[in-house]
Amino acid sequence: MKQSTIDININNLISAIDDRLFGSFIEHMGRAVYTGIYEPGHPSANKDGFRMDVIDLIKPLDIPLIRYPGGNFVSGYNWEDGVGPKDTRPIRPELAWFALEPNQVGTNEFMDFLKQVNAKPMLAVNLGTRGPHDAVNLLEYCNFPGGTHYSDLRISHGYPKPHNVKLWCLGNEMDGPWQICAKTADEYGRIACETAKMMKWLDSDIELVVCGSSFREMPTFGDWERTVLRHTYEHIDYLSLHTYYTNMDDDVPSFLASNVRMSNFIKEVSAICSEIKSEKQSEKDIYLSFDEWNIWYHFKKDCEQPPKWIEARPVEEEVYDFADALLIGSMLITLINHSNVVKIACLAQLVNTIAPIMTEPGGRAWVQTIYYPFLYTSQNGRGTALHAHVQAPTYNCAAGEDIPYIDCAVVLSENAEKITLFIVNKNLEEDIACKINMSGSEFSGIAEWVSLGGHSPSEINTATNASVQPQHANGASFNAESCTLTLPKASWNMLRLKIKS
Ligand code: AHR
């Protein structure tokens, strides 16, 4: 059997992990909102029209932060359409996703929903069709206590307390030609800077995310980041990254190597932040907000686009398979291993649209394969990331050479009583033996080993069949200095080890 080792030193820290690494995203796109989280006629709907069956599936994910309302949608959005009496709100043709937007859910309803799932908002402002003034008006509506036009409007809408939204995105993917009112880097950098100044003048407690490139392969990648940071550096806090991986060629080994690209992307963007910091001779660090990440290709490959100009237009309803679950596990490992620079990340998205949770209008809700690695990593990946020195066999594929079969992240729990290892074995044919060596502390027991494996790469879950689910695994053994186990072929694993305090 092939062998691997993971060396851990309890004192060799990467960083405290920001809880916001386990954020998610709900856009007015497809059926994410309407018939996703919100469906007043549904048997499980609460008094506000939110589906409690969906909320019950979201809650265990322990999501600290949800980005809203877009995405591409935000670049054509009038936030005023979504507040006030519901029967007076306009229905509009929505140009990002070619649907009718009924505006029955807006800022206040989203805040109500967040309370149900114990999450905080990350709101995006429209820097496409609108600009700094509208952004600062929305901030006033959300955060100003009262006694001004927009804060009093909020109060008149039944929300006497400010929403206190701390985290704001300055537009969305403004470099993309598909974006409503896309901009050059200079155009965007200027407007983002002026918007940031005004927003922070109104509320100095907020944090701002400026748009990086829409994805790594954009022709303007790098130049875009540099130009935008030169305009905005002293006024913003985070730079965004977005990525969606695909497997159009049905090449699973190459697909599973995608998180190597994610890791390189993070390193490149982080290096650009350092470059502009030194160019500006600034004291300030800009951190990264990976506020859209996921896998997205099944719908494009297999499905026909639904008719335009309907409400809840069912676009991009990805059906995720077991291979996707493995890559999501590896992408989470990558995010943890870069937690010194990545402070915010949002799995895009949460319900129905490229999402771990699916619903039928009027009917059932269920979870897809990718739900599970996110669930366990979010629940158990809080604390401090430790360096893991991994020695593992490698493979060559179309995506590159010497791709390690084993991905691993190690997290020391907040009470320093356990370390949790998230490990993926990407070898589709063979189990791999693994020895975990500990220095600086001692193992005192195995708390839990959960493993997701034993499926073909294309196996899926449906409303009636949830065959892809993690199982508790046995067979790991330990002594004070090490733990040994066999990682099943094609598996995601979470191993929790007790350590002596
Ligand atoms: O998350 C889906 C879409 O992907 C978002 O609207 C956009 O920002 C990205 O291109």
Cα shape: globular
The small molecules bound here are: alpha-L-arabinofuranose
Mean pLDDT: 97
Compute the number of helices: 11
Low-confidence stretches: none
Helix-strand category: alpha/beta
Task: Count the beta strands.
Answer: 24
- How many angstroms does the end-to-end distance come to? 34 Å
Note the main sheet: 10 strands, mixed
User: Strand content of the residues, in percent?
Assistant: 25-35%
Strand order within the widest sheet?
21-20-24-18-17-14-1-19-23-22
Based on CA atoms alone, the radius of gyration comes out at: 23 Å
What is the share of helical residues? Answer: 10-25%
Could you explain how this protein is built, in words?
The protein is an alpha/beta fold and 501 residues long. The chain is built from 11 helices and 24 strands. Strands 21-20-24-18-17-14-1-19-23-22 form a 10-stranded mixed β-sheet, with helices on one face. It has an 8-stranded parallel β-barrel with strand order 2-3-6-7-8-9-10-11, surrounded by 6 helices. β17 and β18 form a beta hairpin. α3 packs across α4 (149-156), α5 (185-202) packs parallel to α6 and α10 runs parallel beside α11 (371-380). The radius of gyration is 23 Å and the shape is globular. The two termini are 34 Å apart. The model has no long low-confidence stretch (mean pLDDT 97). The structure holds alpha-L-arabinofuranose (AHR). Alpha-L-arabinofuranose (AHR) binds next to loops.
